[in-house]
Specification:
It contains two helices and four strands. By secondary structure, it is an alpha+beta fold.
Amino acid sequence: PVTAAVAPTPTAAPVSAAAPAPPPGEPDPLARSSAPAARGGGFTVQVVSTPRRAEADRWVAKLRGYSPRVEEADVHGKGRTFRVRLGSFSTRRDAQRFLAGVTAKTGAKGLVVATR
């Protein structure tokens, strides 16, 4: 079964805490290059899943600095959904670190999902 991410309210105030610095020798999880839009990794960050394309487009505009993409999916019992996703990561840990940074910078919550 497919589970949908619960979208935060678009008017949520951003969290002001800074994301922790990466350990020496590891890439910055907030650097744009660490979140390529193309698939290729085993994990991605899903920020929202909504039945309304207009809502997905609003999230894309809000997160434009992170190279967001919209993926359409037909979910059994729910119909068509529009998922706003960020990045492609080889490990779940890298995706979780990136999500923590996105949440700290924008207030947007999400979840790490396996790329299919």
